[in-house]
Amino acid sequence: MKKIALIFSHSPFDTAISREAQDMVMALSAVEHQVTVIYLDTAVLQLLPVHPNAELGCKDFTPAQKLFELYEVSAVVASEQALNKYQMVAQQCRIPVMTLSCQEIQQLLSQQQMILRF
Amino acid sequence: MAVFALYVQSSTYACPTLAAVLRFATAALSQHHRIDHIFFYQDAVQAIVANPDLPADEPDNTDLLLSFCQQYQIPLLYCVTAAEKRGYATVATPARHGFIAAGLAEFAMRLDAIDQVVQF
Fold first, then answer.
1. By CB atoms within 10 Å of each CB, which of A77, B32, B50, B117 scores lowest?
2. How many C-beta neighbours within 10 Å does residue B97 have?
3. Does residue A53 form part of some domain?
4. What is the pTM of this model?
5. Domain B3-52+62-119's class?
């Protein structure tokens, strides 16, 4: 079991990067790694529910975030700075998130054994 | 001595991603570290395409990496789902010889025995 942080920093439908990163969260958690997901910058927009009638032109993968709890993802973190930038509050997010400052995120990252960026 | 996994997700087309992977792997082995495997995910799965039609004046970095990994017995794994979704590993067009189909679960399980993951 490793402590692994996955840092997301892309908006939800900017290439397939975030969609496949979300699959990675589930795969790592399924084999008992202690996974922390951190949403930085534009990636906080992944946490906003998309209107069901939105014409995205691609599949909305974000509802699968609800599986994080089932997979026992250890922590889901949203950057306070990013939430402020996009005028969001944690309560708007689809799943419960921990809001942390840049400094707190740095501290969290220093406790990890591995870090992957998406 | 450390055990490394090299995780590749950047595009590998017409850019130095694979050259950087090879440079890192060469340096790591020369310092007596071990590379457990190299895993291709996201857009990096394009590296498995069997017959890229490369211009004569461009290096075939995939070929260089394949030779290196064969020499040092380093498995080159790719996420079969990511590849199939992009049409890169089908019955009609199988992956380039030397690449091994794997899943995210295998990558995840292998991390237990890894000291460091280096991402490209």
1. B32
2. 9
3. no
4. 0.95
5. alpha beta
